[in-house]
Amino acid sequence: MLILIIGSAPDATEAQSLQGKLVQNIVAINNAWNIRSDWDFCIFPDDFPDNRRPTGNEAQNLIRSEQYVPLQNEYGGFVYAGGTMAFTAGYWALGHFKPKAIAYIGCDMIYDGKDTHFYGRGTADPLRKDPTLKNLKAKSARLEAMAASQNCAIFNLSKKTKSNLVFRRSSLEKIVEEGHPRNINTNLLDRVLQQEKKLNYFIEDGKYWKHLDGLDQEKIDYLDETWSRVIECD
């Protein structure tokens, strides 16, 4: 099973030309449901305005916090995963579908230029002052490592030169033909997961922003640095 996740970067509109027949489910984040009409799931946070949410049809589903928080908790929770919807959508897809591969488009989280989003200039969620989002590359490495541990490969379809995702670049066609997870350092993986458990920054309801005073940035930085080394690059 191959899952396509569409974000809101300016190049997210390239998803319009992707062959939908190659993927089993399309997950749109926030406003990305506007990009193509055949999306299957739209995932968004509780503060996403009602007037920007899709109505969908009988075959389309809206994914709210009551659905994605429990699944994200199965992978350690929001503090360790990174509190932005690009990663939340990945963990939700990983837990819900148990897919063989996930492909991202429009989620590089690089905010250069006049237009930060496909609809113009928006508020870039990952740029807010947040201890869980200080190292986006490390958070993406964590997601890929967790996926690889359940035999799922993650790729980036973006053609942009810069990205805050460490996933390999590829195309849907190549993923279908030869997509496979990268190797992970299992000893390092076990060690960093134990460090997370010992640190115990687990917030069951997902509202970690209400507990920021209890988070030690240096300890989170140490975890991020470790996660950056778990993936064994080809």
Textual characterization of the structure:
By secondary structure, the chain is α/β, with parallel strands linked by helices. It has helices at residues 65-74, 78-81, 85-97, 136-148, 172-178, 186-199, 217-227, and strands spanning 2-6, 25-29, 41-43, 61-63, 101-105, 153-156, 168-169, 183-184, 231-232. The strands form two sheets. A seven-stranded parallel beta sheet has the order 4-3-2-1-5-6-7. It is globular and about 45 Å long.
Protein traits:
single chain; 234 residues; alpha/beta; 7-stranded parallel sheet; two-stranded antiparallel ribbon; 7 helices; globular
Low-confidence spans: pLDDT under 50, at least 5 residues? Answer: none
Derived from helix and strand composition plus strand pairing, the structural class reads alpha/beta
Number of distinct beta strands:
9
What about the largest sheet? 7 strands, parallel
Radius of gyration: 17 Å
- What number of domains? 1
Q: What's the oligomerization state? A: single chain
The count of helical stretches stands at: 7
Shape: globular
Write the element-wise H/E pattern from the N-terminal end onward. Answer: EEEEHHHEHEEHEHHE
What is the topology, as strand order, of the major beta sheet? 4-3-2-1-5-6-7
The whole-number mean of residue pLDDT values reads: 90
Q: What's the N-to-C terminus distance?
A: 23 Å
Helix content: 25-40%
Strand proportion, as a percent range, falls in: 5-15%
